[in-house]
Structures are given as structure tokens and as C-alpha cells.
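Sequence in, structure out. First:
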Amino acid sequence: MKRNIVVILFIEGDLTVSVDPKVPPYEYVVFSGLRYEIDISRPVGKRVRRLTLEDGSPLDPDGKYDVVTNNYLANLHLLTEGNAFAAGEDLPVVAESDVNDRVGSIRDMITDYMVNVKGVKGRDGIAEYTPEKIRDKDADWRVIGYHWNAKKHARVARLVRKGRINIEDYQDQFGNTIRPITEKDLAAAKQK
């Protein structure tokens, strides 16, 4: 089975991490029910570390696990040869393909979970999610392996909060950070 590649970038002098701008944001997959680390200091294809089930127990290599995803990702990665499965490998069997009439859309289920389980309330009844609203113990994954200067990284965070570094200058139209904030950017912000 081919492995999907985690494409998070870090270059010496960076004070934040960014995603690869050549990979569309809808191609990034985050898993629930698993805990893992993405070690960006390791080579591409070997970055997922400490993969366990949500309760910390190891995955059984011979075990069978249910995977729930939307139809786009299923058709792109799981139900065709070439991305996750090599030619001739058994492809997964779809257990149920349309649950909208019974449980609503995926967007509705996520909103219901964030509002009714996590208690995240937003303006006009719309759930707003930010990492600060979800406690660290709830995090299923984290990025490790960056080796930036901690003092400079903290200074960048302060300058972003104060508006002296505009985070939108480093993001694409979807809000994904596609360019890291570097030591050069920090020096330029000091000149402002």
C-alpha cells in the first residue's frame, strides 16, 4: 500500500510552519479516532510517528477498522487504484454511501458536534472553531520536529497579535498558511 505524504514545510530560519502551496487544501486529511505526531524533521513519507488509537492502544496491523469520509476523498483515495492502493490490491467495500436523509450532511454533523458536544458557540448561532477553544488533551495530532528560536517565535506571535505582522500576507484564499514567517520577516516588522 502506498503511503500518503504529509507535506508541511520547515526551512532553517523559519519561525512558523506552513503547508505546501502546490497541494490544494481539500487534499489534506486529518483523522479522528487516532493519535499521531507529524515530525517535519524526518524525510517525506516517514513523518507520521507514534500512531495509536484514540485511547493510546496500538493499531493492530491485521485489524479491521471502519473509515468514515466524504465521497470526494473516498473516490479520490480509497476506492481507486493508484493513490492509497497499488494495482491489484483489494479496495475497500463501501458499507453505506448516502446517510444524508438519516443524519444530515457532513457539514451539519460537524456543526452539531462542535456546538452540542464541544460547546463552541459563535455569532448568530454559527459555530466558530479556533485551536484555543479546544483543549490540548482533545488534540488528536500535533506537529513536532521544528527547531526554531523559541524567543523569536514568541516575538512573532506577539507581533501578529498586535497587528504588526499581518498573518493574511502568509495565507492563501482558504486561510492556509502557505508561506512561513521567517527571521527576515521578523527583522522587517521591527523596522515598521
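Second:
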Amino acid sequence: MSRSSTGHRWERLGGGVSELPREVACAAQCDMPILITGEEPEDNRAVAEAIHRRSRRAGAPFLTVDCAGMSESLLESKLFGCVGTDGVTRASCGCLERAHSGTVFIANIDAMSVRLQALLLQFLEDGDIRRVGDVPVHRRVDVRLMTSDDGSLFASAPHMSFNEDLLYRLNVMHLVIPPPFRLHEIVSNQPAETLFDRSAPIGGGARAH
């Protein structure tokens, strides 16, 4: 990557299905944002949850929001919450607020609108939550953000319009899921459930570049 002002970038490039337990273990030891790229949404989510369960945040919530097929207004409320000032909509906390001290996994991040990309970037910069319809107040939360896409974020298609600064912040650690990956099958002569085993030995580490 050409940008380096915020320090090291980390990458795990899916060397094969057999590498996944080790890569999950490595990812669980850090607290940086992770972008997971894989063809199967359920596999992406399973890997994100495995990382969460092995991390220091395991005792806190793991919440998922899927950008695919969701309207911009609903997605904004799901993420940031709303105050319900219209007398019809009930006030609610968003996932980012409810997952305080835990992890939020945003699936299909490539489907997020440009406006919400800007709001998410602002959240990553200052850690403050502003609910939909709320006055500017500080609700600072501590969450780890994981996101996923199917590879389209790195496509060269001219119609792709994803916030470059946001992508840089989300892609601090990049984990590529090699197809096909089926969580309930044997992985490298060990049960795939060891992805969720916090006591499993950690072999190797991510590389900085």
C-alpha cells in the first residue's frame, strides 16, 4: 500500500484452508480492524466470530449487520441507533453502541452507501456515536470493527465508489478466505471447531508491510 502514515499494515493472504486456524489465532491476538474477503457470506461471518471468541473481547457482544439489501435509513439506524422523535419510531441503541467492549461485524460493506461510509469513517476517527435524529452529543464506545466483502472492493471496475480513507482504516488487517471453506469439515487434520478454541496453540504470525 502506498499510504503508511498510520503505521504498519497487516495482511494474511489465505495460503490455503489449512492455514485458517493459525490465521484466526493471530488475528485474535490483536485489536485492529479486519477486512475479511471471501465468496461465501456465512464463511466470512464464521471466521469473524471465531476471531472474536478467541480475543480479549470474547465476553462482550458479537453483533452482525448485513449491508446487502438494506435501505440506507434502516442501515443507519441499525448501526447508530435512533431517538424516535417522530412519535412512531421507538428510540433504540444501534449495534455499535450495544456492542460496547465487544465486536461489530459489518457484512457486505461494499454495499454501503457513500453517505454512510462517511459516517462510519467519522466514527472510526473519533469513536463517538450520534443516533439518527439526535442532537450532537458524545456517546463514546469501544468496539472492534470487522467487515467483509466478496472481493469487489479491490476490483478495478470504474463504477466502484468506495471511500478510500474508510477502506484504508478497515483494511488494517486483511484476511482472505480461500474457496471453498466449509467450517464443519476437517481442516488440516484437526476439527474445524478449533477455530473457536481459545486454548489452541498459535503458530506463526502476521507480517507487516
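Remark: DSSP finds six helices and eleven strands in the chain.
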